[in-house]
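Write out the 3D structure for:
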Amino acid sequence: MVEQDENVEVLTSITTGSAAALTISLLLRPLWNVAAHRSAMLPEHAVWIGSSSRAEAMYLGAHALAGAAQGLLFWLSWGLAALTTMSWWLQGLAVGAAFATLLVLPIILICSSVIRVDRKVLWVLCGETVATCISVGLACSWNWMQR
């Protein structure tokens, strides 16, 4: 019975992470549309791929996969978070900030040193990644608190 409870906890964390990432991606999608529209006005700076069902599916799939992976990492790291006396939202913010740092810092360093990327595109991408990580951290922490 204990093994079944652990499986449910893992699947719940993965599902919660995926749902949070999908939700934030749908809320932030208009930002990408505005940036794409502005980029299209300046052809020499256009870096956007035209909208298609395949591109949208890849965008949503990437967020779902990232959220599921973060949900799994949240479940794996919960032993450390359980040792603290912080409220659920502080734990969620701390976990989300840790995930964001681990994901965004390499992107910024690589794009600053090796790849020529428009700074506005880089900051929009990093902002979306930080928002996704924090929303997943908060959702997983809140879901865990509900048990």
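The CA atoms of residues 18 and 107 lie 22 Å apart.
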